[in-house]
Amino acid sequence: MSDYIIEAENLIYTYPDGTQALKGINIKIPKGKKVAVLGSNGAGKSTLFLHCNGILKPQQGIVKYDGREVRYDRKSLLQLRKNVGIVFQDPDSQLFSASVYQEISFGPLNFGLSEETVRKRVEQAMSATEVAGLKDKPTHMLSYGQKKRVSIADILAMEPEVIICDEPTAWLDPKHAQQTVKLFDRINSSGTTIMMSTHDVDLAYSWADYIFVLSNGEVIGEGIPEQVFTNEILIKKADLEKPWLVQVSEVLLIKGCLPKAAVLPRNRERLFELIINHGTNVGEEEVINDFSDFRNNGRERDHISADLKGL
Amino acid sequence: MSGEGNKQQKKRYMLKIDSFAYANKLRNVHPAEKTAFALTTMLLCLIFSSVTLSAVIIILMAGVTVGLAGIPVKTYLRLMFLPFSFLLVGVITVAVSASAGDTVVGANAAEWLVKIKISKIALGITPEGLLAAARLFFKSLGTVSCLYFMSLTTPFVEIAMMMRKIKLPALFIELTEIIYRFIFVLLKTAEDIYTSQSSRWGYSSFKNSMNSLGCLTAALFVRSLHRSQELFTTLTARGYTGQLNVLAPQYPVSAANITLIIIVETFLVISAVLLEVNKFV
After folding, report:
1. How far off is chain A from B136, nearest CA to CA, in Å?
2. How many CB pairs (< 8 A) connect A and B?
3. Distance separating alpha carbons of residues B37 and B86, to the nearest angstrom
4. How far, in Å, CA of B219 to CA of B225, rounded?
5. Based on the domain organization, do A268 and A232 belong to the same domain?
6. pLDDT exceeds cutoff 60 at A304
7. Is the pLDDT of residue A289 over 70?
8. Which domain holds residue A253?
9. pLDDT, position A296
10. Number of domains in chain A
């Protein structure tokens, strides 16, 4: 037993066309946590995920599952895939069956479970993802959001220890994105480790327990959200943006609307609570000084944007 | 543009049948019951070449499909007219007999109903020919009506499930299933590409159309290959080991339906035998 469910040590992978996708990646995914992997397009997130489930075999370095090195014989791989499920980004490439029920039953059946157990799991997965009403509908008549939920149910029915999601909220409308995130929270609360890649810094900041930042096939930073998103250099290097909560809190902190020692709020409600509970009677001078600082920062940003325009 | 319109229409029919299969009033009837009903009726239609029996079957199937399954009459009639042109050509060639001289081969002389003589060859219609043609016509239409009942009330997924039950080779079933699923994925892709091309004047002239169509076809090929690779990856991630094992949802078996089917089929058999014995057409 290990504190980390998946570990990758010095992972190197180059695609046949010469693209060096991973250049010596080291990560440790804490067990039972919600982990976000951030990075721009082509940073190596998907390649990393395919390693976690044994689809890709590292050219150099090792992958460990629950403290033990992954072996690549048929039986060990099947065992690994039973424990690590991947929800792919495009549900159309994952859903192979025209029937929602058949589709979901595929995974658990591969692990030699009895028909009765599989049926029970399919039912559970369908009710957890709220697709039970779609049971009699063919896959091609579902909307994108519905397909996405079925593709999550696919993996849920396998009851893995880790669920990896490649951009689960991409192309979803805010309401369904919210629902998906809530679903992941529910799954996580029963002890399943969740790992997701995303471009949505606001989501990552509010949702994740731990964050990895990837850029160009390397891990350029990691830590708890508050650490990662207050590290200006890291954020710039990774082509990311600060979450709005962090930006607003920083301004409010300078303005004196938040207590100085306050921990950065992780969600809207917490922020409002901090503002409301905090009196605004702060020394005027201090505010002005800090604010001019802030204005200077703003000017600096203007310079940058002017430079960008020059390009 | 009429060619394109025609193609669109055919596609629409295909999709229409597919959507009716998923949304009709007999949707929740056990697929085995529907299959048994359609196949036995079809078998009877094929075994007994009786015009009357075929006509009864056509009416019966139309009644069940429209009345019980709730398929709109208009759609049903249109679908029934689809095989008409094939049928007509086939039936005419059977009805018309030709012979050298005045005698009809294999039949009594001077039995022509209509006759044209072109030098020494006589072309015409004989009562036997007409009867054979009528039998063929009704038999085909009867069989078609059974197949329509099946495809309008039973989704492909359940037909595949039946194929599993009767132990057809797994590879064959898996292939059909995946092809069925990806017809729709490719159709969607083709539609998207077509839309994006036409929004950029891709089909504004004949030359442009040819060019765009070529690109579309090529893109579809590449996408299909890409899709198949992706599918393999995603299946492998779920423990695929060479067999697409799946479970179908369970349907309630209805004793009433089975009894009804048995009664109807027995009635058909008895009437078919009686018709045969009494040498009725």
Report:
1. 36
2. 109
3. 26
4. 10
5. no
6. no
7. no
8. 244-310
9. 52
10. 2
